[in-house]
Amino acid sequence: MTDAVVVGSGPNGLAAALTLARAGLRVEVFEAHEHIGGGLRTEPLFDSEVLHDICAAVHPMAPVSPFMRSLDLEGNGVALLHSPAAYAHPLKGGPAALAWRDLDTTCAELGRDGPGWRRLMLPLMERSADVVELMLSSQRTPPNPRALAVLATRLPAQALRAGGGLRTEAARALLTGVAAHGIGRLPSLASAAVALLLGHLAHTTGWPVPRGGSRAVAAVMAAQIERLGGLIHTGVRVDSLRDLPARRLTLLDVSPRELARIAVLPARYLRMLSRYRYGPGAAKADFLIEGAIPWADPRLGQAATVHLGGAHGTAAELARAETATARGLRAPHPYIIVVDPAAADPARAVRGRRPVWAYAHVPHGDTRDPLPMIRAALENHAPGFTDTVIAERGVSAARLGVYNPNYVGGDIASGAMTLWQTLARPVPRWNPYRTPLPGTWLCSSATPPGPSVHGMCGYHAARAALATWPEAARSTPARLGGGGRPLER
Ligand SMILES: Cc1cc2nc3c(=O)[nH]c(=O)nc-3n(C[C@H](O)[C@H](O)[C@H](O)COP(=O)(O)OP(=O)(O)OC[C@H]3O[C@@H](n4cnc5c(N)ncnc54)[C@H](O)[C@@H]3O)c2cc1C
């Protein structure tokens, strides 16, 4: 019998498996896809040379998440590479706004809003460790008072007005583009928290891209699990927990919907799970292009991440588009994140050809091919972009949900990012990771602290499970809901 089984090998599943393996448990991971990694896959999509990140590409959490730091990515050969600007935002008919790694350069370029940007970011930068600790916590420990103090004086302005406290269109749009990573109504408390977290990290540890693509991060985690004796099985979609081998602990890197599908749950918990809300979808386009993106403002080529939205790119347009999308409406010019990994890692461009990905926020379950919409948005700010495209593909939000069952209806956050659901993911319980099934824990981004590649959902879930380990070790597999039958492939 194995000690623990983990279902799903996304960053949180691998983080859970590694945390358990580090504690000395025998661990087996079962992954539906033929490759490990969940949101960390990188593949050659159009030719054998250029690698494309299928989901995550940019990793602001890698240098700051306690779990990610424990991997020692750099020491294990995965350099975290930076573009000179972390992110940028084009405005139609004017110069683009850029968030440089260097705060002074950013403030100098923001002109009238330079002092306001500094007043917003500098205290967060000085309290960064506290802010990160609070935001990546299980949300069940007493909040760090230093983080609370710095956030409490900044959140209300951002939550009341997109780009609140800033006056120029460039600065307001720049900040609102970060807030929109929260995928939901704008402005809101949840999106404001995202803006402050990601916004200040741009000027501290940055928004790096792992050399060789996101799969390199998954490979480091897998190697460490295997070194500790863990086993990883791929190509195995778990349809019932009863099919899993005998074990004492079960950690599930799955969505609440998948949990309800594969487990026999008590009616009360099932009712609570059925109230869990999923958010808007992401519809993604992958491009293989010749040369660089022909941005109207060439400085945009200095940023690996560029935010687009609205016809002109203003904060008000972004807020309208995000709010409409959250209501299930198709915004004419939705918010789009464009990532050009070669801006940080030039080796990603092979013989002049480079990967570019972009995803648009669209209504939940949207079935439209996003290619025409994303191409048009890029053409708007980078005239001639279409002529650079050698190959392309579009993946609708509905198809993204089929590709990975964690992204229900294309919701890449695995659950709407409202303030309530940030705290009560997936159900309002003191221990959000524990399920009513003995020894069975949820560890996906549908638990606190939520989406993004930080591994902290998996880490917290594994820690919670380990706290019961002596009890789990005494119990029989049958009591823990383990079927004990060999898994059929
Ligand atoms: C297009 C896109 C772009 C993104 N960009 C970024 C980015 O740049 N930076 C960032 O930080 N985050 C980004 N994200 C979000 C990030 O990828 C996720 O927040 C993160 O991967 C969630 O990790 P997870 O382990 O909870 O789930 P996932 O990474 O989704 O992994 C879940 C795994 O479980 C497997 N699984 C599910 N059910 C079963 C089952 N029944 N049996 C077996 N296996 C199962 C799935 O196949 C999958 O491999 C992006 C996401 C998408 C889709």
Low-confidence stretches: 476-489
Residues in β-strands, percent = 15-25%
Distance between the termini: 18 Å
- Share of helix, binned: 25-40%
How many strands appear in the DSSP assignment? 16
How many DSSP H or I helices?
19
Strand order within the widest sheet? 7-6-12-13-14-11-15
Write down the overall mean pLDDT. Answer: 95
Q: Biggest sheet, open or closed, and with what strands and sense?
A: 7 strands, mixed
Shape by Cα distribution? globular
Q: Any idea what the radius of gyration is?
A: 22 Å
Ions, cofactors and other bound molecules:
flavin-adenine dinucleotide
Whole-number count of domains = 2
Alpha-beta classification: alpha/beta
Spell out the blueprint of helices and strands.
Layout: E1 2-7, H1 11-22, E2 27-30, E3 42-43, E4 52-53, H2 66-70, E5 80-81, E6 85-89, E7 97-100, H3 103-109, H4 114-126, H5 128-135, H6 145-152, H7 155-160, H8 169-179, H9 189-201, E8 209-210, H10 215-227, E9 231-233, E10 247-252, H11 256-262, H12 267-274, E11 281-290, E12 303-308, H13 315-326, E13 336-339, E14 353-362, H14 371-381, H15 385-388, E15 389-395, H16 397-403, H17 419-423, E16 440-442, H18 456-467, H19 469-474
Helix pairs in contact: 1-10, 1-18, 3-4, 4-9, 5-6, 8-9, 8-13
